[in-house]
Amino acid sequence: MPARIPLDANAILAATEEILRRHGPDKATVVDVARALGVSHAAVYKHFPSKQALREAVTRRWLDRSRDALAVIAADSAVPPARRLRTWLHALLAGKQAKVREDPELFAAYGILAAAHSSVATDHVADLLGQLTAIIADGAADGSLRTDDAAATARVVFTATAKFNHLAHAAEWQNPGIGAELDEVCSLLLDGLHTRMSP
Questions:
Q1: Counts for the chain of helices (H) and strands (E), in that order
Q2: Model's pTM, two decimal places?
Q3: Please, which pLDDT band fits residue 25 given cuts at 50, 70 and 90?
């Protein structure tokens, strides 16, 4: 059966997102994706060698959408690093809340990959840590944040805020007051960063 639209990786990923939303990650199949595109499942496999590869690609693309918005915040040198750090952490939480609320099936697909230690999950965390490191390095450069190792400090900040970014805590992200709780943690962390090198 001829394809209704040109068959390329983007068309397959878009169709896969819709199939995942409709059926969930446990029931969605490559055959469902092929049927939605009007092609054979073999045609899909020419672009993605396995169901796992397809799931990873669609989840990576889905995660990259929020990553790009966070990258804009991280790179905004017009905003002082301490304020940028707080804004970035709040934006990360808001993005996670939106994903759980608006795209639960794709969030579940991400959870499956994270539990399997997929490179998609590890790359996502590495990218977030890179953004955090850049913010903290900017603060070290202008003297507003004190650290001997921006990357190590970024890992500490990320770990200290795990309740607001790790999917194991997803059920808590919709709790009233979660934003205020994050703000309190941010204040504590920033106080520590301001005074860490003081005698």
A1: 9, 0
A2: 0.85
A3: confident
